[in-house]
Amino acid sequence: MAKITIIGSGNIGLSLAKGIVHANLYQPENVFLTRRSLSSLAQEAKAGFSVSDDNAEAVKGADVVVLAILPQQARQVMEEIRSALAPNQIIVSVMSGVTCADMRTVLGEQAIIVRAMPNTAIAIGQSMTCISSDQAKEEQIKSVEAVFNTVGSVVVIQEELMTAATALCACGIAFFLRSIRAASQGGVEIGFHAHDALKMAIQTAKGAADLLLQMQSHPESEIDKVTSPKGCTIAGLNEMEHNGFSSAFIKGIKLSALKAGGLYNE
């Protein structure tokens, strides 16, 4: 029977566990969740998941081991589980800035490592997850892809782009949320109550994203449909651009990518 172990059952780990069970990829009893405090996993234990505070014991017999921990915890956790790992197990890392090569220096050259970078929308099954590896076989990557397809969309990329993926997709959630917040504040300034302005901004942002996804179109082509000569939309867009909207967004993504690359070493 297939078994998966998720080490570090925080928001991402628990969301992944629920997603794979909901998709019938694994049975709850074959999903092993670890955390330092077992009382934090009481609800998951009641739901039928297997829980443990012993990382080394939990990885035994697992087809896939997911390290859903902070980069700063990486070395300690990998040293804990190293002796318990088998050569055929796939190690999936969701740790930002920790390369496959970094992990192999601790786990050994034989380790099969696949990196995955989901975002917090994993909580509602709408993550944008990027996955990569340096040495894993195609079927091994596909098995990891199947796991993360249960909680959103997946793109397979080159490993050197994983830090960039962190900035665009993981940090990117916060950037788009801030833009929605700004839109709602603008709504208040032009006369709406705060709760109405926020609801209107959220739905408008959701509609814009769904429009691109469903129509498979480019943002500029959809922008063209709502901008008329001497109109109010182009006036607003140009005012934002004069004040550096796109430039600030791009610079923020670039700086986040630079920061993400140094998390493991810090």
From TrEMBL:
Q: Which reaction does it catalyse?
A: L-proline + NADP(+) = (S)-1-pyrroline-5-carboxylate + NADPH + 2 H(+); L-proline + NAD(+) = (S)-1-pyrroline-5-carboxylate + NADH + 2 H(+)
Where do the Pyrroline-5-carboxylate reductase catalytic N-terminal domain residues begin and end? Answer: 3-97
UniProt keywords, alphabetically: Amino-acid biosynthesis, Cytoplasm, NADP, Oxidoreductase, Proline biosynthesis
Q: Known EC number(s)?
A: 1.5.1.2
> What is known about what this protein does?
Catalyzes the reduction of 1-pyrroline-5-carboxylate (PCA) to L-proline.
What gene, per UniProt, encodes this protein? proC
Which compartment or compartments is the protein found in?
Cytoplasm
* Protein name (Swiss-Prot/TrEMBL): Pyrroline-5-carboxylate reductase
Keyword flag Cytoplasm: yes
Main location class: cytoplasm
A Pfam family in this protein? P5CR_dimer
Q: Which residues cross the membrane?
A: none
Domain of life, source organism: Bacteria
Q: Which organism is it from?
A: Sphingobacterium corticis
* Domain Pyrroline-5-carboxylate reductase dimerisation per the UniProt entry, residue ranges: 159-260
Q: Quote one Gene Ontology molecular function term.
A: pyrroline-5-carboxylate reductase activity
Q: In which pathway does it act?
A: Amino-acid biosynthesis; L-proline biosynthesis; L-proline from L-glutamate 5-semialdehyde: step 1/1
Family the entry assigns: Belongs to the pyrroline-5-carboxylate reductase family.
